[in-house]
Amino acid sequence: MTRETTSFVYVTYIASTPEKVFEAITRPDIARRYWGHENVSDWKPGSTWAHVRANDERTTELVGKVVEISPPTRLVITWASASQAADPGAYSRVTFEIEEYEDMVRLTVTHDELEAGSGMAKGITQGWPIVLSSLKSFLETGRSLDVFAKPIGA
Asked: What is the pLDDT of residues 19-64, one digit of tens each?
């Protein structure tokens, strides 16, 4: 029996360069400033990557492998909760496509191969918009957003 899958696509335009957007995703020292996590890898095809919380505990929350990398325009990684790393069926895929648009960049993030109705599918539909809004804010103004903020009254 095959599992039902779903996908999530988010597109944003950023007043930046492809190089700066790509670095913001792949360099731990930059990602921690707008994401609250570091994406740690040597960024070679087949290499592992880890999404490490940028705090004193340094908890690895997500893991995966680098599927494809073409700086500064494309990055494809697999993605799973660290607690489910041993389960091949737990992995989804994230594709970052970075396209130059005159004096800005169009960033398209496609998160697919997600198990429909799963906690991960629900989590990323809430997570990607705030993370990518924080990335945009950070690259355009130098100020990030609080990606851990909750709605008032929640």
From this structure: 999 999 999 999 999 999 999 999 999 999 999 999 999 999 999 9
Two tokens, residue 90? 């737990």
Distant-in-sequence, close-in-space partners of 43: CB < 8 Å, separation ≥ 6:
26, 49, 66, 69, 75
Task: Mark out the alpha helices in the chain (DSSP H runs).
Answer: 18-26, 28-35, 119-141
- Distance (Å, whole) CA 71 – CA 23: 9
Of residues 34, 53, 4, 32, the one with CA closest to residue 107? 34
86-123 residues labelled b (16+ CB within 10 A) or e (exposed)? eeeebbbbbbbebeeeeebbebebebeebbeebebbee
Q: Coil, strand or helix: which one is 35?
A: helix
